[in-house]
Design brief:
Elements (H helix, E strand, L loop, with lengths): L21 E2 L18 H4 L62 E2 L13 E7 L19 E3 L2 E5 L5 E4 L6 E5 L18 E4 L11 E6 L4 E6 L14 E3 L12 E2 L6 E2 L2 E4 L2 E2 L12 E5 L5 E5 L28 E3 L4 E5 L14 H6 L2 E6 L5 E6 L15 E6 L5 E7 L7 E4 L9 E5 L14 E5 L20 H13 L15 E3 L12 E4 L4 E7 L3 E7 H7 L27 E7 L1 E2 L4 E2 L6 E7 L5 E7 L27 E4 L3 E4 L6 E6 L5 E6 L9 E5 L2 E7 L13 E6 L6
Parallel strand pairs: 1-21, 2-36
Antiparallel strand pairs: 3-42, 4-5, 5-6, 6-7, 8-9, 9-10, 10-11, 12-15, 13-14, 14-16, 16-17, 18-19, 19-20, 20-21, 22-23, 23-24, 25-26, 27-30, 28-29, 29-34, 30-31, 32-33, 34-35, 36-37, 37-38, 38-39, 40-41, 41-42
Protein name: Pyrroloquinoline quinone-dependent dehydrogenase
Cofactor: pyrroloquinoline quinone
GO molecular function: quinone binding; quinoprotein glucose dehydrogenase activity
Length: 731
C-alpha cells in the first residue's frame, strides 16, 4: 500500500516446495539462509528475548471488532454449494462487471462508440459526490482509488470510507446508499476503497432479496454483503450481512490492518486479503489469506504462512501467526483452475529479514496460486528473494492466452512489479512462459546478521519498465549549485546499482524504489491487437537503518504504542520496525530545500508493448505535465509532458483508445493505442489516482474516473466521481 511522493519537476526551468506448492522458478545459485530450501537457523525460527513474538493470548484493543460482531462459524469446503455463472465471467455488452472489467482483469472494453476521430468531443455527462472527504480537525488521509463497476441498470461504487452506492449509469442519480459507519480512527495509511464485487447467488431464487449482491471488505476489517437492488444488508450472510475479519487475528489496534481491494469470488469462495500498516513492528498482525462462503459468509479456509498445514480458524485465545507477508493488492481468480492468484508483500519489518522464517522467505514478494477449495498453495513464483527493499507486489495479475511453441494456447498470467520487471507465467504451474534468469546480486550485504540473496530473478524477454543504474553525472537540479548538492548526496551514500543492500553506517540509494515500476494501477491489455499498456514510475529513495537508540531520539514508535504520534513513523516513510534491532529512515532522493528530485526527469512513463510480435516496445512516452507541479511544490501551469509520478492505471477499448489519469497534473487523457499520441485531455477537479472504467447506458458509451486525489501525492482531494460522454449521450 504504498507511499507516493509528489516530486514532479519542470524541464528547462527545473526541469521448490512448500506444503504441496511448487516453487516455479530457478532458485538462487548459492545457498544463503532462508533463500532456498535450506533448513532455517535457530535465530530465524526461534527468536528470543526482546525480539520474541507477543503472547498468543494478548487481547485485542477496544474498537478492533468495529461492529461488535459475534464470531463466524466454519463450513467444510465439501459443503459449499455449486456457483452459478457470474456476470464477471462474460459481462453483457457494455457492462464493466469486475474491478478490471471481467475475470481476466484485462481492463479491456469492446465498446467503440468513442473513437480517435470523435474523442475530442467528450464532455462531462455528470458528477457524483460520494460525501467522503476530510472533515475539520481531521488529518487528510484520503485517496479514494475507486473504480466503479456497472452491471445491468446499476453503476455500483464505494466511498473512500466504504459506504456503498448504486447510481443510474446514464444520469448519475443515486438509487440507494448504504452507510456502513467506518470510523476515522480505523483509517490505516489511506482512506481508500478500490472497488466492490458483484455476486449472484445459487441458493436465493431470482427476484428475491440478495439473489444478486454487492460484496466489499472495509477499512475496519468487515466483510459486507448487501442486496444489489436495494442496498439492504443480506440477512443470511454472516451476522445480518457482516463478518468480523478480525476474528483470529489477535492483538491489534484500529488502523493497523485494513481491506481496501475488492474481494474476488472463485467457485463460490470469497477470498479476502488485507494490508498491514508498514514499518510498525516485526510481530505485527498476521498477513493471513482467508476464504469465506459467498452464500453464507461462513469461514472456509485460511492460508497462514507459518502454519501451512492448518487451514482452520484459530480457537480460544490463539491467533494466526504474526508478522507474515500480507497481500494488499487486488487478487485475480480463475474459476476453471480453481485458483486465486495472490500478490504478496514482505514480512513485517520491511528492511530487516533476519527474524523471518524459512516459510516466510519462500512466499514474500511473490505470486502465490492458492486452491480455493483447500487454502493450500498450488505454486509460488517469487519476484524478489529475501526482500528488504519493500518490493511488495502492488499490481493485480492479468490473465491472457498466449501461443505456445507446439501451437497450443498457454493460459498465461502477467505479473508487473515495482522493480520494473514484468513476469509472464503459465498460470497452471507458475513456470515462466517467457525466460527468467537468476542473476548475481550484491551480497552478502552490509548488516552482519542479515545476509542478502546471492541472485535475483530477471525477466529477460520483456521490456524493462525502468531506467539504467544511476551515475554521479546523472545528478540534476534547477541550478549548478543544486546539482552539486545532489552529487555530494550521491557520493555520501552507498550505491552499487539495483539491490544495493541496506546499510547502517550511511544512507543507501534504493533504485528502482518501492514507488518504482508498476504499482496498484496494474496493466491493461487489448486481446485483439495484443498490445499491453503499462504506466510506471521512475523514482529513487534515500534510506538508512538506525539503531533503536537513534529511533527513540527520532520518536519512532509503532502504531500500537501509547506514545505513537501520526507522522512519527509509518507507511509514509520512517518506520519504528519495533521488535528488531533497527528502525528505518526513508526519504526521497531529493534536494530537501527545493523539494526537487536529484535524478533527472522523466519521473513517470507510459509504455505500449506488442505481445504478439516479439514482446517489443511499440511506443513509450513521459506521462504527466508540469502544470500542477514544480519547485517547492508550486504549480507552474506549464503544459510540458515531462513525466510526473503516477498511480492508477488505464483502460483500453475496441475504439482504439487508452484512457488514463494517474499523473499528478490532475488530468485525464485519451491516447491513441497505435501511436501513443494524446488525442484529448480534461482537467479534473481533483487528482485522478484511480483506475478509470468505461460502460454503455441507453446506447451510449461513458468513461468514468474517480477524481478523489491522493493525500501523499499532494493532489487535490475531492469526493467527485466524474463521468464523460459524447454530446449525444447527454440529450
Amino acid at each position: 500500500m504504498k507511499r507516493f511522493y509528489l516530486l514532479a519537476t519542470v524541464a528547462g526551468l527545473s526541469v521448490a516446495s512448500m506444503t504441496g506448492a511448487a516453487y516455479a522458478q530457478v532458485q538462487p545459485s548459492d545457498t544463503v539462509p532462508d533463500v532456498s530450501n535450506s533448513e532455517p537457523t535457530d535465530k530465524t525460527d526461534a527468536p528470543s528475548g526482546k525480539f520474541a513474538a507477543p503472547s498468543p493470548y494478548a487481547p485485542q484493543a477496544p474498537g478492533v471488532n468495529a461492529a461488535n460482531l459475534p464470531d463466524i462459524d466454519s463450513i467444510d469446503p465439501s459443503q459449499l454449494p455449486a456457483m452459478v455463472p457470474q456476470q464477471s465471467a462474460h459481462p453483457a455488452s457494455g457492462d464493466w462487471a469486475a474491478y478490471g472489467h471481467d475475470d481476466t482483469q484485462q481492463r479491456y472494453s469492446s465498446l467503440s462508440e468513442i473513437t480517435p476521430e470523435n474523442v475530442g468531443q467528450l464532455k462531462v455527462a455528470f458528477v457524483y459526490h460520494t460525501g467522503s472527504y476530510p472533515r475539520p480537525g481531521q488529518v487528510n488521509k484520503w485517496a479514494a482509488e475507486t473504480t466503479p463497476i456497472k452491471v445491468g441498470d446499476g453503476l455500483y461504487t464505494c466511498s473512500a470510507m466504504n459506504d456503498l452506492i448504486k447510481l443510474d449509469p446514464a444520469t448519475g442519480k443515486q438509487i440507494w446508499r448504504r452507510d456502513v459507519d467506518v470510523k476515522y480512527h480505523s483509517i490505516p495509511y489511506t482512506a481508500a476503497c478500490k472497488g466492490v464485487t458483484y455476486f449472484t447467488s445459487s441458493q436465493v431464487p431470482e427476484g428475491q432479496p440478495c439473489h444478486n449482491r454487492i460484496i466489499e471488505g472495509t477499512l475496519d476489517m468487515r466483510l459486507i454483503a448487501v442486496d444489489a437492488a436495494t442496498g439492504q444488508f443480506c440477512p443470511n450472510f454472516g451476522h445480518n450481512g457482516q463478518v468480523n475479519l478480525m476474528q483470529g487475528m489477535g492483538e491489534s489496534v484500529p488502523g493497523f490492518v485494513a481491506t481496501t481491494a475488492p474481494p474476488p469470488v472463485i467457485n463460490g469462495v470469497v477470498v479476502v486479503n488485507h494490508e498491514v500498516l508498514d514499518g510498525q513492528r516485526r510481530w505485527a498482525p498476521s498477513g493471513v489469506i482467508r476464504g469465506y462462503d459467498a452464500e453464507t459468509g461462513k469461514f472456509v479456509w485460511a492460508w497462514d504462512v507459518n502454519n501451512p498445514n492448518d487451514h482452520s480458524q484459530p480457537t480460544g485465545d490463539h491467533h494466526y501467526s504474526r508478522g507474515t507477508p500480507n497481500s494488499w493488492a487486488a487478487m485475480t481468480g480463475d474459476n476453471e483452475l480453481g485458483l486465486v492468484y495472490v500478490p504478496t508483500g514482505n514480512s513485517a519489518a520491511d528492511y530487516y529479514s533476519a527474524l523471518r522464517s524459512s516459510e516466510e522467505n519462500k512466499v514474500s514478494s511473490a505470486v502465490v496460486a492458492i486452491d480455493v477449495k483447500t487454502g493450500s498453495p498450488r505454486w509460488v513464483f517469487q519476484t524478489t528473494h529475501k526482500d528488504v527493499w519493500d518490493y511488495d507486489i502492488g499490481s493485480q495479475a492479468t490473465l491472457i492466452d498466449m501461443p505456445g511453441p507446439d501451437g497450443k494456447t498457454i493460459p498465461a498470467l502477467i505479473m508487473p512489479t515495482k522493480r520494473g520487471e514484468t513476469f509472464v507465467l503459465d498460470r497452471r504451474t507458475g513456470k515462466p512462459v517467457l525466460p527468467v534468469e537468476e542473476r548475481k546480486a550484491p551480497s552478502p550485504g552490509m548488516i552482519p546478521d542479515d545476509p542478502r540473496a546471492p541472485t535475483q530473478p530477471w525477466s529477460v524477454a520483456m521490456p524493462q519498465l525502468k531506467m539504467p543504474d544511476l551515475k554521479e553525472t546523472d545528478m540534476w537540479g534547477m541550478t549548478p549549485i543544486d546539482q552539486l548538492f545532489c552529487r555530494v548526496k550521491f557520493r555520501r551514500a552507498h550505491y552499487v546499482g539495483e539491490f544495493t543492500p541496506p546499510s547502517l553506517d550511511k544512507p543507501w540509494i534504493e533504485y528502482p524504489s518501492y514507488n518504482g515500476g508498476s504499482d496498484w494501477g496494474s496493466m491493461s491489455y487489448d486481446p485483439q491487437s495484443g498490445i499491453l499498456i503499462a504506466n510506471w514510475n521512475n523514482m529513487a529513495m534515500y534510506d538508512q537503518l538506525v539503531t533503536r537508540k537513534q529511533a527513540d531520539k527520532l520518536g519512532l514508535m509503532p502504531i500500537d504504542d501509547p506514545n505513537f504520534k501520526p507522522g512519527g513513523g509509518g507507511a509514509e516513510g520512517n518506520g519504528a520496525m519495533a521488535d528488531t534491532p533497527y528502525a528505518i529512515v526513508v526519504s526521497p532522493f531529493w534536494n530537501q530545500y527545493t523539494k526537487m528530485l536529484c535524478t533527472k526527469p522523466p519521473y513517470g512513463m507510459i509504455t505500449a508493448i506488442d505481445m504478439k510480435h516479439g514482446h517489443k516496445v511499440l511506443w513509450q512516452h513521459p506521462l504527466g505535465t508540469a502544470r500542477a507541479n514544480g519547485p517547492w511544490g508550486l504549480p507552474t501551469g506549464l503544459p510540458w509532458e515531462i513525466g510526473t509520478p503516477n498511480n492508477g492505471g488505464s483502460v483500453v477499448t475496441a475504439g482504439g483508445l487508452i484512457f488514463i489519469a494517474a499523473a499528478t497534473d490532475n488530468m485525464i487523457r485519451a491516447i491513441d493505442e497505435k501511436t501513443g499520441k494524446v488525442l484529448w485531455s480534461a482537467v479534473l477537479p481533483g487528482g485522478g489516482q484511480a483506475n478509470p472504467m468505461t460502460y454503455e447506458a441507453n446506447g451510449h458509451q461513458y468513461v468514468a474516473i474517480m477524481a478523489g486525489g491522493h493525500h501523499f501525492m499532494a493532489t487535490p482531494v475531492t469526493d467527485q466521481l466524474v463521468v464523460f460522454a459524447l454530446p449525444d449521450a447527454k440529450k
